[in-house]
Amino acid sequence: MTSLLKRLAGGTGSRSVKAELRGDVLFALVIGVVGLIAILPGRDGAGTAMADMQLVGSIFAVIIAAIGLNLLTGYAKLVSLGQGAFYAIGAYGFAYLFLDGGFPALLAILVALILSGIIGALLALGSMRLRGPQFSMITLVLAIVVERILEQLETFGRASGYPNPLSHGTGLLEPIELFGTRLEPPLLAGTPGNVLVALLIVLVIVLVLYRNLVRSSWGRSLRAIGESEHLAAHLGVNVFSRKVVVFTVASVLGGLGGIFYVQIFAHLQPETFDIFLSITIVLSVILGGGGTVLGPVIGAALITWLQRSDVLTSVADAQQDLFGTDRWYLSTPGLLGLLFVITLFLLPNGIVGTANNALRRWAGADDESDADAALADLEVAQLPPREERREPGAELLRIDGASKRFGGLQAVGEMELAVREASIHAVIGPNGAGKSTLANLLTGVYQPDEGSFRLDGVELAQLKAHAIARSGVARTFQTPQVFPHETTLENVKAGFVDVAQLPLWKAALKPPSQYRREREIHDRAIELLDRVGLAEDASTLAGSLSYGKQRALEIARAMAMDPRLIVLDEPAAGLNPTECDGLAALLLQLREDGMAMILVEHHMDLVGQVADEVTCMDQGRLLAHGSAEEVLADPAVVAAYLGVPDPDDVAEMEVAR
Ligand SMILES: Nc1ncnc2c1ncn2[C@@H]1O[C@H](COP(=O)(O)OP(=O)(O)OP(=O)(O)O)[C@@H](O)[C@H]1O
């Protein structure tokens, strides 16, 4: 076990702080060197190299916009069809501010980026409550509106005094000057195209920040939102605000892509920013692999190369030669569309996603190990006590007069319940008694109609799920909820407070303290997995774990949240007897460590084994309360479960007890 833990600590998704730092520096160097190799041939300004240099520059620009979209679409699974609009806003915003507004270049860049961000934030504030296709449609509308505005505002362009920026441009943007250097675009034979060096430096910086971001707890929160917004909220993530922020960041990156574009081509024409641009950026993410660090980089490079080189045109010409007609052949956009369809069929996870999966399979990381070992094989490590935790027995939670109606149905009515520190309070009752509804009221799934839920004196009623989670209430679910496409280890890491609360700047800049914190999270997550018997499954995808193991994983994740109270909604459902024994041992150990728990359960063996107090509900109301023995022997409880108090059934419950 120890050697396994050492191997995991060194090898599964996290390395020593020094090795991690070396990896980060290497990433920046590799990107920098590849970029330099791409732009060096054009530095002499030779005319033949000009088109190549513009190609490289376009790739840089689309990469920037695509990584922004990847944050939104690849990680948070919010499909935006409007990234091209921000590209246009950045490009035109900069051009107007620089030329018309007379802003210094750097200030014009900054203000154009802020403008992109503000428009992105406003759009996000208005549309983030929409989901799926509705959200995509809003972004599509933005792309179309911006395209139309650019087409129609030629008069505005003329009036601006800028030489024809909005129509087919002969008017060229003056190269900008930064720190005494004139940054020439790769425009004509003889112009050095040295702006590419500056753009490469910016590109490397942005890529490093972006990589830091997606590999941090902040990135984990995006992946959590992408997998399940509902679950992310129960881990303390303010889903709405995080979605607004990520949309804003994506918009700023879209704007930056547009600013890159102006520096490379030095003139603007509305056709560049049509809806096909947005689709190209989406294609870049999908082809390269959404939700992977390098996916949009590779996808953007490939798609831009295909579009700008004559590869696709040659294929289109070859079709014409073959069929001898100019009517029935696939033009360049048609060929790109075909490539898109082929990618979706053959590489649904994109190039990088598919390569990652193949590597994972090759490394044998997906091996399923013995399912029964999960909860039975418990190692017990001490849970570091939470600071606020008080002495065992002190009242931690008090539910008073909690009520909830669904239409005409009183699902919970004037319920009362108290939970003490370091204790297990079981809530039992027949099907439909209102147990899960009570758990859902406590954890913010529903807002109570009436009543109070005080955790150590702090009122939780009416708080949102994420705020309740942050107050120290963690939960598991009747049907286990894990992030199926993440590893078991990553699932536990999703529980740490950093996922909900790490500031964006810290995630992107990754100061030395962040390296150490990530290391701590990793070690603690491994420890928690070991504690619930899942150490061997650390690198297995959570979706392929057995039911029992998923339940154990939920408990480990809840513990990662370092809560004051864990609400367990039928944790024994679907477990075999060995797993159930393991679960009982785990709960008792957690109690020993000072954890308070509410156990919603039908499994009377488990209740009898672990509960300090039992509350029985019936038809939404409190039926009985006391020790497990008292409540399980209560004739009213037996009657509620069985309809009528049959002496044989009472005897059966006695046995269970
Ligand atoms: N979202 C909802 N909308 C309408 N009715 C609901 C909703 N959630 C629960 N109910 C109803 O409220 C009542 C209590 O349901 P609840 O799931 O809380 O019971 P339970 O004690 O957890 O049952 P079980 O043990 O079967 O899970 C049931 O009649 C149920 O149909």
UniProtKB/TrEMBL annotation:
Topology in the lipid bilayer: Multi-pass membrane protein
Subcellular locations according to the entry: Cell membrane
TM stretches of this protein: 21-41, 53-72, 79-99, 105-125, 132-150, 195-213, 244-264, 276-306, 327-347
Record-level Gene Ontology MF annotations: ATP binding
Alphabetical UniProt keywords: ATP-binding, Cell membrane, Membrane, Nucleotide-binding, Transmembrane, Transmembrane helix, Transport
Superkingdom of origin: Bacteria
Stretches assigned to coiled coil: none
Gene3D superfamilies in alphabetical order: P-loop containing nucleotide triphosphate hydrolases (3.40.50.300)
ABC transporter domain ranges (all copies): 397-644
Name of the protein in question: Branched-chain amino acid ABC transporter ATP-binding protein/permease
Organism in which the protein naturally occurs: Patulibacter brassicae
